[in-house]
From TrEMBL:
GO molecular function: oxidoreductase activity
Origin superkingdom: Bacteria
Record has Transmembrane as a keyword: no
Domain Luciferase-like: 12-275
Annotated EC: 1.-.-.-
UniProt entry keywords in alphabetical sequence: Oxidoreductase
Protein name, per record: TIGR03564 family F420-dependent LLM class oxidoreductase
Annotated InterPro entries: F420-G6PD/mer, Lucif-like_OxRdtase_MSMEG_4879, Luciferase-like_dom, Luciferase-like_sf
One Pfam family of this chain: Bac_luciferase
Amino acid sequence: MRLGVLAGGNGLGLDELIGQVREAAGAGLDSAYFSQVLSWDAVTLAALAAREVPGIAVGTAVTQTYPRHPLALAGQALTAQAASGNRFTLGIGPSHGPLIETHFGLSYDRPARHVREYLSALVPLLRGEQVDYHGETLTAAGRVMVPGAEPPPVLLAALGPVMLRMAGELADGAVTVWTGPETIARHVTPAVTRAAAAAGRPRPRVVAGVIMSVTADPEGVRRRVAESLGPAGNLPSYRAMLDRQGKSGVEETIVAGDEPAVEQAVRAYAEAGVTELVVSLFGDPHERARTLGLLGALRGPRGDAQGDAQ
């Protein structure tokens, strides 16, 4: 299992964000991802980070589909792939109805149909193919050529059964968030793997995003997570996944505790079929440093990851 970080934080400048990627690379981790919010552009950040920090893989987890036409995103993603020396993974997702409709003034009608058609246009565009796609929710006609850029892997944000099926059938795998290892083992990994097999695709990637803190005060960390992220748990797709797990809020999904407890949780994700764990470091500077240090120790030399954290 690969280990990476989700870089970011409120009010951080560019040098600080790139610094987080540099710290992850220095710890020996495999990857650094950026998420798309109403601030820095995630694809551009990934490209810049890759140019500044050699060796580490970069990606988005995730960037929104509705505000970006597939032709536009294909050009941007292939540019990032070329800039990174082909170390870029494109994670995409439709985001959430209240956000898309409120911030962008766009209709969130039929998100599953939108995602299916978006991937149907985007994936061949990333391969440099001529596309003439006319769907119910979008039209894409053209070709995107970026010399030196290989087609980047595409991950789909997926929590429910319909999105998980598309992640295996049309993309290279799924990226989840706030989903524990038991639910991943029982629900996520089997669904996306079955879909990929039925479509004749290679075994998919299962990328799990988790909030993590090596701390002497796990309950205090949970309280701070609840204060900062509590409302996000009421967005429909997150609420459905939390309900599936029997969790009342995001704070109940985090990994927090001393080194042995956190190490045990990391290994549980590996045993659940997760191929890459993407960690949001949470806590004060000391707690974040402890967490990164533990991840680096678990990772070991590149290609080892303590026996892939098994």
